[in-house]
Amino acid sequence: MKRALLVGAIAAALVVCAIGAQVQTSPLFDPANLRAVGAFVRGLFPPDLSPAFLPVVARATLRTLGVAVAGTVLSMALGLPLGILGTASLWRRGPLLEGERHSLGRAALAAASLVARGLSRFLRAVPELVWALFFVVGFGLGPLPGTLALAVSYAGVLGRVYADLFEAVPPGPIVALHASGATRLQAFAAGIWPQAAGSVAAYSLYSFECCVRSAAVLGFVGAGGIGAEINLSMRLFEYGQVTTLLAALVLLVLGADAFSRALRGRFQRNAVHGSGLLRDALELRSARRGLGLVWLALLLFAFQQAGFVGIAAAGLWPHLGRFAAQLFPPDLSPAFLATLVTPLWQTVAISVVGTAIGIALGSVLALPATSTLLVADPDRRRGLPARALRVAIHGAARASLAVLRSIPELVWVLLCILAVGLGPFAGALALGLHTAGVLGKLYAETLEEVPPAPVEELRAIGAGALQRLLWGMWPQARETLASYTLLRWETNLRVSTVVGLVGGGGLGLALYNDVQLAFYDRAATLVLLIYLLVAATDALADRLRRRPTARGIALAPESALALIAESGSAAAP
Amino acid sequence: MRLLLFAALALAACNKPAPEETLRASMIPTTDPGKATREMQPLVDYLSRHTRAKVEMTVPTNYAAVVEALVNDQVDIAHLGGFTYVQASKRAGVRPLVQRERDRNFHSLFVTQQGSNIRSLADLKGHSFAFGDVNSTSGHLMPEYYMRGSKVDPEVISKALYTGGHDATLLAVANGKVDAGAMDEAVFERMTSSGKIDPAKVRVFYTTPPFLDYIWVARKGLDSRLAQSVSDAFLALDPADPAQKQILDALAASKYVVADDADYDKLRQAAAQAGLLR
Predict the structure, then answer these.
(1) Do the Cβ atoms of A66 and A301 come closer than 8 Å?
(2) How far apart are CA A561 and CA A166, in angstroms?
(3) Residues of chain A whose pLDDT is less than 70?
(4) Residue B99 has what DSSP assignment?
(5) Which CATH code, of 3.40.50.1260, 3.40.50.880, 3.40.190.10, 1.20.1250.20, is assigned to B107-207?
(6) Shortest CB distance from B278 goes to which of A422, A515, A519?
(7) Which of B8, B68, B62 minimizes the C-alpha distance to B36?
(8) How many Cβ atoms sit within 10 Å of the Cβ of residue B224?
(9) How confident is the model at residue B18 (pLDDT cuts 50, 70, 90)?
(10) CA dihedral defined by A373, A376, A380, A385, rounded to 10 degrees?
(11) Taking the domains of chain B in order of start, what are their residue ranges?
């Protein structure tokens, strides 16, 4: 009875959200829209590989990589102080503070620590695309605003992640250091950093992967790179160019992932012996100075690509100041706030409907993509053709998931606009397609990794694939699947605030129009609203996660992951 | 002795006239920004000669960027549309310079495919539609104004695509990517007469009443002599001179006239009424 009520409530909520996201089935079958999509798909082939276009692709790819590298380096530089100051065990509670006198200085530091945490939260709650939109107005078009947007946004992410890592180290060394009279910074340097450095390096590299994905779409709001070229080619209906650019984007993302995985492995191996990061840097200095210079040169090149040559240009900073001044005071007039109700509601609806589409499509694809269900069947009685067919279906499902996942949400929005026109439905559909790719992969991997014993027992008594799935895998995987899905909804809510920047409805559309029309005080209000919405969702999701589960699975580590699992690979470092 | 000679040379170098002034120009991207920059090279050369300043032209990817650059004194002269002019004059106090004679009496064209059954604004119901940039006067504001005035199905407007430029709109219509679109009449003429678009593929089914559109402006603080010499350069463009004829053709102009701010009051009212100007 209780369960029926819950299912009914969820169904009702979905229907309400579907209305909010203006879900319609008719545009999907409208001949005019089908023709537009058909023309688009036909236009994608052959890819434009002409000698005139390839250099454009190469330049855009290089620029995107430069923006990602420079953005990551800057976000680490900003995130580290935020993280240290935000670490509760250094400034606010725990063994370090026991026995210390309550003083004004101590209270001030504790307050500063809370401010650092709040600042991190604000920086990461506002999507990087929104930061980029603002910086484009403040700094002018080009890669520089994109780099700074990444720097600011990921500083918020890393600030939180670093603080979490610092708080999670075993307290033994700190207590010992404190007892011997070490200051807090000394306790940090000798007691916390050596224990956390390996993880810090690993998470920073992981955030680099996410930065590459983000950098690729910042061009949609004028920040250069691959996104800008995709936008331009879509606008000129040169779909063959879009294919080439998407291929370059996927290669770039895969390359960055491989690079970061390789390095991460090294840091983690070193981390076993103590300070992975420091040791590695020392080794670099002594044994491979030449290689170090190459790295430095590459870094400088990245900053040059990221537009840092123009940062000293006369008038840039006063100009930024003037722009910032126009944001205040935010327009809080009741007449304006009343106009925000619909976009706010649309944004929430887009995230819910998008996630629902992602769950549905992702599940359908996840089952054939699960190797333990389909191909790793030790049953040798089947004939070769049947096994070959199974392998083919498995491969096709995996490939579809990879394609869905590797095309960023915002590119999906542009494609969905062709199919269903501008508006929230295009946003929800786009979100759903990308989410299906992400969730499908996670679902499949979760099902593959459940402890095999119960499944094998079922197999031994002759259970088929469906029975093994229902009675062997599902009960074991349920909780993990639910937590992945919840995480994805959180991410999708952030994304749904920006799909409107390219025509997908919701708050993003209102924000884009206000920035284009130079109503900056209204844009400031919208950013505040986005912040509040994202912060509220985070709090809600945290509550849902903390709910004691039947099997008492601690899901705490997921929250740190949630912060950086921006899109695509949600695999832990 | 050699040292003395070197010093004398260095002094001589210092006595050279101050490096020539730079005039930073920009244009709203009514067509593909990359192409526009190339097409404007003859104009840039002509202005450089005429004003004796080094003219640097940048064409960004959207209209708002040009207004923003004017507000921030990042460009000296700019080519704006009617609505972007009204925005820039309010926000940055830009000075009107010159405009084409035709800008005083400008129209938007509604285009569709030759074989389509769209013959009037009312026929747009149920069809896909394309505007240009959100901030475009002839590609969005005035077309939408007249569409609303003649009670076109609001669904057509709310679902319209924004191509970002007039050339993209016409391409989209000609290639059947959208059923109809609204665009700048001068770009239409240029694209059909130059053979970029096969005139047999497209058909104009509605022309708006006249309104005021494009204009060249100077930023508020620009040296008035320099601003004047820019105006003079445009006013002196002579269609009888083959080289200057080429420039006029690239600008789709026959002749330039002095522009007046007061003429834009009607557009200001329309924009304010539509909630696009505060």
Answers:
(1) yes
(2) 15
(3) 1, 32-33, 36, 99, 141, 267-289, 310-315, 376-382, 547-573
(4) E
(5) 3.40.190.10
(6) A519
(7) B62
(8) 10
(9) very low
(10) 80
(11) 19-103+212-268, 107-207
Four-point Cα dihedral B259, B265, B268, B269, nearest 10: -160
pLDDT digits (tens, 9 = 90+) for A224-242: 889 988 988 887 778 889 9
Distance CA A138, CA A48 (A): 35
Give the B window 27-86 contacts with A, CB below 8 Å. 32, 60-65, 67-69, 71-74
Same CATH fold assignment for domains B19-103+212-268 and B107-207 = yes
d(CA B47, CA B53) in angstroms, rounded, equals 8
Inter-CA distances, B1 with B6, B11, B12, B13, B14, Å: 9, 15, 16, 18, 20
* Cβ contact B87–A518 (<8 Å): yes
Could you give phi then psi for residue A454, rounded to 5 degrees?
A: -60, -35
Cβ pair A32:B128 closer than 8 A:
yes
Q: Say which amino acid occupies A418.
A: L
Count Cα neighbours of A336 within 13 Å in the Cβ-side half-sphere: 18
Structural Rg of chain B based on CA atoms: 22
Instruction: Calculate the alpha carbon distances from B31 to A81, A91, B247 in Å.
Output: 46, 57, 16
Q: Which of A33, A236, A519 is opposite residue B168, by nearest beta carbon?
A: A236
What tokens does A156 get? 């918020």
DSSP states of B165-223: SHHHHHHHHHTTSSSEEEEEHHHHHHHHHTTSS-GGGEEEEEEPPPB---EEEE-TTS-
**Residues from chain B contacting residue A503 (CB–CB below 8 Å):** 161-162
- Which among A39, A315, A517 is the nearest to B73, CB-wise? A315
Contact A345, A20 (CB under 8 A): yes
State whether B128 and A421 contact (CB < 8 Å).
yes
Token reading at A468: 């093994």
**Tens-digit pLDDT profile for residues A323-336:** 888 888 999 999 89
Residue linked to tokens 């106009």: A339
List strands edge to edge, sheet with B215-218. B54-58, B22-27, B77-80, B215-218, B95-96
B19-103+212-268: CATH, from 1.10.238.10, 3.40.30.10, 3.90.190.20, 3.40.190.10: 3.40.190.10
Measured between CA atoms, how close is A513 to chain B, in angstroms?
Answer: 8
**How large is the ipTM?**
0.71
Whether A228 has its CB under 8 Å from any CB of chain B: the answer is yes
Determine what percent of chain B is predicted with pLDDT higher than 90: 55
Do A516 and B177 count as a contact with CB atoms less than 8 A apart?
Answer: no
